[in-house]
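Practice record 12: protein with flavin-adenine dinucleotide.
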Amino acid sequence: MRNFDTLVVGGGLVGSAIAYGIARRGGSVALIDEGDVAVRASRGNFALVWVQGKGDGMPRYGAWTRRSADLWPDFAGALMDRTGIDVLYERPGGIWLCFDEDEMAERQGLMARLKAKAEPSGYDYEMLDQGAMSRMLPGLGPDLPGGSYCPHDGHCGSLHLFRALHAALLGLGGRYLPDRRVTDIRARADSFTVITSRGEIQGGRLVLAAGHANAWLAPKIGLRAPVKPERGQVLVTERFEPLIPLPTSHVRQSHEGTIMIGDSHEDVEFDDRSTVQAMAHMADRARRIFPFLARARIVRAWGCLRIMPPDGFAIYDRSPDHPNAYTVSCHSGVTLAAVHAEKLAGWICDGALPDEIACFSAKRFAPAEAARQRRTDAHVL
Ligand SMILES: Cc1cc2nc3c(=O)[nH]c(=O)nc-3n(C[C@H](O)[C@H](O)[C@H](O)COP(=O)(O)OP(=O)(O)OC[C@H]3O[C@@H](n4cnc5c(N)ncnc54)[C@H](O)[C@@H]3O)c2cc1C
């Protein structure tokens, strides 16, 4: 049986960021992953590092997101220094697009509410009318009434981020153990044995970051992670010269030149297929946003399942029964990668989650609340 100081279960963006952060503090770390057959959110996202619109109903989540966005430049730089991999992070600000006057009014209300309740880190934004938005987004269609601009927003290459996190972990002496589905956990006072499809692995500390699998793994260490799938479909065009200078809520241009068109929000349980209906809707909307996209060729499309806590905010817990065991479940694993690696991993190493993130415990979900309708797309980018 192999033995490590820390076992992180789940090698998606969340587990990889935490494993990297823990490995930097020293000690042996194993990142255990089910492999390519698993349901994975990390390989199908929109790659936004996005602050605006988040935290309605939990201002601390807005501040947490902002903190991550502020850590991103150094986080990306450190990954570059360690691995030579550019994660293509840029922070030109981002625009949330509104499609009619009702949406515009709703957005204005949301942004004002978030600013009023923001923690001292603040919440900068500007509502844009059609003219102002067109100046920032050349080629914008004429019939969008406006949107909101936030300077804290940015985007990255999320597959590059994935590769950099794994390379950094390996460079620090960590182990990546793929093709090992964890089927059970035996928890003792000072150690954990993780039973996988390819044998048992032992560790002194355990972090569950297995995306959807946290829902059934967490109870094995006395915790809850009531996450649900929410399908998001994305379209990708052929490459273009730089046309879209900053990311928007529905369309962004990647560093490579492809234009990503997103993304649906569908409650279809664990069905991650693409559908013509959703693709047609997104393509129509994209044409309205940027009429030049009418002639763009779509080269790829996918469906992928978001990992959604009932209220859309993150879940971080330390087990009351097994103090060296933790769960981490969230949507927005790209945005939060920096704060996961730079802050959360350190707190896990120190053996305590501070009061400032106590609000993220799954204790906030009364059983009835866990079944509540998930929030609208304003909170879930
Ligand atoms: C369409 C879409 C758009 C998105 N856009 C954005 C965005 O713009 N910005 C943003 O910040 N976030 C975005 N996200 C969310 C982001 O992709 C996720 O938050 C993030 O990838 C979650 O990572 P994760 O590591 O928790 O989960 P996953 O990527 O699902 O990783 C979980 C890992 O656990 C492993 N695993 C599962 N079960 C087991 C088991 N039993 N044993 C061992 N290993 C196991 C799997 O192999 C997998 O690798 C988007 C998501 C979607 C679907």
